[in-house]
């Protein structure tokens, strides 16, 4: 008998090196807890909200019925919700530019000075660190129509006064001013960090090219190099503005009428005061959709105008 010779040996899988398997296992072990927490804290709650939004469930009830898109149809036909949505957009359009431009302006002033820089940074950063409820109560005392410091100062100067938190024309701008005052220190600190990271060589090169005035240096060097910081500040401040709730709850409760009602307050009122949890979940879905869409648009549009080096 002749021994058979295997001309074409069968392909056998090449075992992975032990080091590669260990690295993969270590990666899964390190990323696993974070992925599990993301799943539990973000993905599953959003899925739960989506399920509740298509039901008529009321908070505390033991039964619910599927209603499809009825909550969303009722939502967009509700005048109060449309007013809340318009107020939120207007509020964000006031807060974001005010916080960004004033934060940049104060950062430039502090950076151009030679003394008391730490003191000025601390003073402007304190509002961002203050408890929001205590801050709102302090503003309520300042804006009191009769004994408030704001109206007393205006009266002493011979200027007209107003019932700032009870007038439909002034309540939303006043809330926006409070939000700008709170976010100012956050924007300022980030812009100061960005200004510190700009190489001095760029300013020297700008001087050689003829950009010797402060306005030319600001336009050709400072603002382009602050692009990444500006993009981050705009996105974060916009998200904080969309999340406005505490000041509305403490100072106005959405009034007068619906003049200061914003989306998060509408969500809270419908879900926990009126116990219409299915309707409140629909408000949540609309809120999340708007926030995610605007964040992606801001990042995409601003990223094209940003200089990273």
What features would you highlight for this structure?
309 residues; mainly alpha; MetI-like fold; 0% strand; MetI-like_sf; transport; MetI-like
Summary, kept brief:
The protein is mostly helical.
Summarize the structure in words.
The chain is mainly α and 309 residues long. The protein has one domain (70-303): MetI-like fold. It is 70% helix and 0% strand. It is globular and about 75 Å long.
Secondary structure topology:
Layout: H1 18-53, H2 70-76, H3 79-112, H4 117-129, H5 132-142, H6 149-156, H7 171-196, H8 200-208, H9 214-225, H10 227-242, H11 246-252, H12 263-273, H13 277-303
Helix pairs in contact: 1-13, 2-13, 3-7, 3-10, 4-7, 5-11, 7-10, 8-9, 10-13, 12-13
Q: Low-confidence parts, pLDDT < 50 over ≥5 residues?
A: none
Largest sheet: none
Question: What's the CATH H-level homologous superfamily?
Answer: MetI-like
Number of helices: 13
| CATH architecture label | Orthogonal Bundle
Number of DSSP E strands:
0
């Amino acid at each position: 008998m002749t021994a058979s010779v295997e001309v074409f040996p069968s392909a056998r899988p090449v075992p992975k090196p032990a080091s590669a398997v260990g690295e993969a296992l270590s990666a899964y072990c390190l990323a696993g807890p974070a992925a599990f927490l993301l799943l539990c804290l973000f993905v599953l709650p959003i899925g739960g909200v989506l399920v509740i939004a298509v039901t008529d469930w009321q908070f505390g009830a033991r039964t619910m019925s599927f209603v499809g898109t009825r909550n969303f149809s009722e939502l967009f036909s509700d005048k109060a919700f449309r007013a809340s949505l318009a107020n939120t957009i207007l509020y964000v359009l006031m807060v974001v530019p005010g916080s960004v431009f004033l934060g940049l302006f104060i950062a430039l002033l502090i950076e151009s000075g030679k003394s008391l820089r730490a003191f000025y940074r601390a003073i402007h950063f304190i509002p961002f660190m203050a408890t929001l409820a205590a801050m709102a109560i302090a503003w309520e005392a300042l804006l009191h129509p009769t004994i408030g410091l704001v109206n007393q100062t205006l009266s002493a100067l011979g200027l007209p006064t107003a019932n700032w938190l009870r007038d439909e024309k002034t309540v939303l701008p006043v809330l926006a001013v409070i939000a700008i005052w709170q976010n100012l220190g956050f924007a300022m600190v980030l812009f100061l960090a960005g200004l510190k990271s700009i190489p001095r060589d760029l300013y020297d090169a700008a001087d050689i090219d003829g950009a010797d005035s402060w306005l030319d240096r600001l336009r050709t060097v400072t603002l382009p190099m602050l692009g990444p910081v500006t993009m981050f500040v705009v996105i974060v401040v916009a998200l904080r503005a969309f999340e406005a709730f505490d000041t509305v709850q403490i100072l106005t409760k959405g009034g007068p009428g619906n003049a200061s009602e914003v989306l998060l307050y509408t969500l809270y009122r419908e879900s926990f005061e009126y116990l219409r949890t299915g309707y409140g979940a629909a408000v949540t879905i609309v809120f999340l959709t708007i926030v995610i869409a605007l964040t992606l648009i801001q990042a995409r549009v601003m990223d094209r105008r940003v200089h990273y080096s």
